[in-house]
Amino acid sequence: MNPYKLLSVLLSYPSAELQQALQTEISFVSDQTHAWQSKLKELIDYLTQTDLITIQENYVTTFDRNSKHSLHLFEHLHGEHRDRGDAMVNLLHEYQAQGFEPTGYELPDYLPLFLEFLSLQDKNQAADLLSEAVHVIQYIADKLHEHNSIYASVLDLAVNLSPIAPVPLKVTPIRDMDEALETFGPNPKGVEPLLNSQINDVQIIKISPSQKRTGAI
């Protein structure tokens, strides 16, 4: 399995299908470097040997109930500011330009979805795109390590795949949706401003504070 795809699977919401798939990927991990083996063995053992309900409860507690652990990349950059909506539109356009059409209900900035997208790119393109997100990924990894989360190893390995080292991330405070509505007002449909964007006027928004690419995230 492509390493990006494996990391995507490991960070996805646990299911019986995921547990079964991981059983077939143990051989892949055993063929990797010692760093991959040592970092992933504990997590794969946990995901394949622990009852599913317990795993799911831990996943929700870790990622859904703690905003600092959120797997939505732009949440750490923009909070609930309308810029997050513009950034997600740009990222979705990047996916579509490369022939990747996300399915399901996950937002474009969901890290497992982003990693799945990288798994479909050639090595250089994947590394280039990852280098724009690595700063956010490192931030999430640091927060997971602070809570001794078993999932931190997956983020560590994603960072290790990047051709550039991450820089400290200046995190945008999470804004209350009521505050955002009061500040910006509702969109023409009267709903929350989070995804209120004019696609034709969107400017490219980078994940990275330092990288410069044309047509990037």
From TrEMBL:
It comes from the Bacteria. This is Nitrate reductase molybdenum cofactor assembly chaperone. It comes from Acinetobacter gerneri. GO terms for biological process: chaperone-mediated protein complex assembly; nitrate assimilation. Keywords: Nitrate assimilation. Pfam families: Nitrate_red_del. PANTHER family: NITRATE REDUCTASE MOLYBDENUM COFACTOR ASSEMBLY CHAPERONE, NITRATE REDUCTASE MOLYBDENUM COFACTOR ASSEMBLY CHAPERONE NARJ. InterPro entries: DMSO/NO3_reduct_chaperone, NO3_reductase_chaperone_NarJ, TorD-like_sf. GO terms for molecular function: metallochaperone activity; unfolded protein binding.
